């Protein structure tokens, strides 16, 4: 019985060898594995072992991927918010000044947004404030940090949150305070220069009734 089994296995191997020799693609594959090394043999074919990460490692990889996506989404959203506030400032100044140049008289201007009845105050230096019952609030796009740091990502926030709720209560909590120093906005304002009237010379009336002005010396 064992002898018949061995004969059957040899016959199967010979048949496989014959198929490889007849097929060019299989022969190239055989030559490759003959040079590089053969995988494990199982039954009548090759068995290719694949690396399969464990459950914990899989969760960690997925968590890291989600954290990176969260960081890029955070960065994109903040850049869009910064751009919206910047465009709003430019639009309000344009409505208040009727140009991109500050008025020459140095006055502040108030305008009302017709869509939501919000009142804005535009200072002569170009800064814009939202006027409310609580006071005037500066509209500054630099309040938004367009470059979020590592502490703002899930890769830091979630593990630290779990730590502070458990071990941190005994060993001391990790500080999660985010320090952001906004850049100082440099405002360059060009004032409208009042048009100078051309100075005229002395008024002279000619005999024919025509009036001319002599040149000023």
Automatic annotation (TrEMBL):
It is found in: Endomembrane system. The keyword Signal applies. It is a single-pass membrane protein. InterPro entries: DnaJ_domain_protein (IPR052606), J_dom_sf (IPR036869). The keyword Phosphoprotein does not apply. Coiled coil: none annotated. This is Uncharacterized protein. It comes from Candida verbasci.
């Amino acid at each position: 019985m064992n002898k018949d089994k061995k004969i059957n296995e040899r016959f199967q191997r010979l048949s496989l060898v014959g198929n490889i020799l007849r097929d060019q693609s299989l022969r190239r594959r055989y030559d490759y594995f003959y040079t590089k090394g053969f995988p494990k043999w199982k039954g009548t074919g090759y068995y290719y072992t694949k690396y399969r990460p464990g459950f914990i490692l899989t969760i960690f990889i997925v968590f890291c991927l989600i954290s990176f996506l969260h960081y890029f989404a955070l960065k994109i959203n903040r850049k869009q918010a910064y751009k919206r506030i910047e465009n709003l400032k430019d639009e309000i100044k344009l409505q208040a000044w009727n140009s991109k140049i500050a008025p020459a008289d140095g006055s502040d201007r108030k305008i009302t947004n017709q869509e939501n009845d919000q009142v804005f105050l535009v200072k002569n230096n170009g800064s814009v404030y939202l006027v409310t019952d609580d006071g005037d609030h500066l509209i500054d796009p630099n309040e938004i940090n367009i470059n979020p740091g590592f502490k703002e990502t899930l890769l830091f926030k979630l593990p630290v949150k779990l730590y502070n709720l458990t071990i941190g209560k005994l060993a001391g909590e990790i500080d999660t305070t985010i320090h952001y120093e906004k850049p100082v906005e440099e405002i360059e304002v060009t004032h409208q220069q009042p048009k100078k009237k051309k100075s005229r010379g002395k008024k002279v009336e000619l005999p024919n009734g025509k009036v001319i002005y002599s040149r000023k010396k």
